[in-house]
Amino acid sequence: MGEPVTVNIPHNLGVAEAKSRVGSGIHTLSDIIPGASLTDHHWEGDHLHFTLEAVGQRIISEMQIRENEIYAIFDLPPVLAMFANKIKAKLQKEAPKMLDKGPGD
Asked: How many domains would you assign to the chain?
């Protein structure tokens, strides 16, 4: 069993806009963990389920899009669990960038 890392990402976008921006920016999560790649993702309502792979390990993850926050859960496998605090700190810093609209705001 791995170690779950949870992150709350506050926003003022509402569910629909936050969901749209997460969908457009999900690929940026692979930059948070060195060598990681997004291998799968799908929506179930306002929940995004996705898998990242890094150093031969799968990180099963979920984002719950809520009215004023995104609640993200990353289930780190034992090999990556030793880096849980560093990964959480980087997620808290970098994950909000998914919500940026980008050029032409």
From this structure: 1
Whole-prediction pTM value? 0.85
C-alpha triplet 7, 85, 8: angle, nearest 5°: 10
User: How far is it, in rounded angstroms, from Cα 11 to Cα 19?
Assistant: 11
The predicted structure's pLDDT at residue 1:
57
Residue 2's pLDDT is 74
Q: How far apart are CA 103 and CA 91, in angstroms?
A: 22
Range of the domain at 16: 3-99
CATH number of 58's domain: 3.30.530.20
Give domain status of residue 27, yes or no.
yes
Q: State the CB neighbour count (10 A cutoff) for residue 27.
A: 12
Residues of the chain with pLDDT under 50: 102-105
In DSSP notation, 21-50 reads HHHHHGGGGGGTSTT-EEEEEEEETTEEEE
Distances 43 to 14, 26, 62, 65 between C-alpha atoms, Å: 17, 12, 10, 11
Q: Does some domain include residue 104?
A: no
